[in-house]
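Re: that chain you flagged

S.,

Sorry for the slow reply, it's been a week of failed gels. I finally had a moment to sit down with the sequence you sent. For the record, here it is as I used it:
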Amino acid sequence: MYARKEIGTVIGGRYEIKEVITHRDREVSVYVATDIETQEEVALKLNTAFDRVRRETKFYDYSIRDLEGFPSKRWCKIWSWEREYHGYGAIALDRLGPSLDTLINEVEESKFSLKTTLQIMNQVITRIQALHERHIVHRGIRPDNFCIGLRGSKTENKVYLIDFDLSKKYIMDGVHIQDYGDNVGNQDWTSLAIAEGYEPVRRDDMESAGFLAIYLLKGKLPWLCEYRSSSVMRGKAITALQELCKDLPEEIITYIIYCRSLQFAQEPDYGYCRELFRQVFEREGYKDDGLCDWSTPQLVAESESMEIAHGSDDDLASRNHSEEDGSATPFDGDTVDGQTLVTETTEACSAEYLNLRTRQVLRLMKRIP
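Prediction finished late last night. Pasting the structure tokens below so you have them in one place:
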């Protein structure tokens, strides 16, 4: 049974397939589909591993349905036969814009600017934290699992985390899971610990985000050209961080060192991780205007007109990209479980705190006396 369907196929008597978004593999395909009753467009995900569909549906229904920066489920149906050994499931979700993997191939030299990457990473870490706050590890942090809002909309610079069919609860009945060696995930993006056989936990989602940052800035990772899992594992193990992060801000290597220093059940310091990227943003003197490399001319023009009208010294981001209109500002205070995540330099993330935390990480890795 394959998840690939012909254009025009009607799924569940309700959704007509209009175009292909992606064929992830033989099991999973995602389409743009139209509700034949309302004519509303959705993203329709078909998965022949219908046990994963059940699990993903539960996450949408009970764990992440009210989280900002995550799509909402519209509909779900599972078909199975022959004592449930065969079948497939379908989930209709909010239609979003293209993935980061698609966007990076549209820009010059197939890599993002430093400004855009820093803005993305602030949102990526916030999305991961929000998921972890619900006791879920994603286990698939990679560029094709992050999408922006629809192009031309107020959310076209907002980053959404998608695809939870490999996700898993890391706290069960109030107790952190043990290491059972269930090291699933795409080998190109998993952490070094997973490559060595450990169970994915919070630290591994965060390290994968570090690989994402490097990929967005360079357009490549040294092991992406390898086809055998053993070659990928060896590539990660032998590639020195200094070489991996060559010509990149030193905060990125600090970030990865920090992630690798975390213990199996240890909670990451998300505020510290965000501030590492914020520190680079401020040092480079970038304007927090909410614009990214893919921003449409209309959004760029609106931002420029606002700057002319109000002056360049004003906080354009807070006016032009407020929470009220649903748009995204790269370093806005986002929310997790209803609480604002303040990303300004606070007492908890002051320059002194950043320096102290960084020195602790480097000492732990025996990089400085």
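What I noticed first: The chain has two domains: 9-94, 98-290.

Talk soon,
D.
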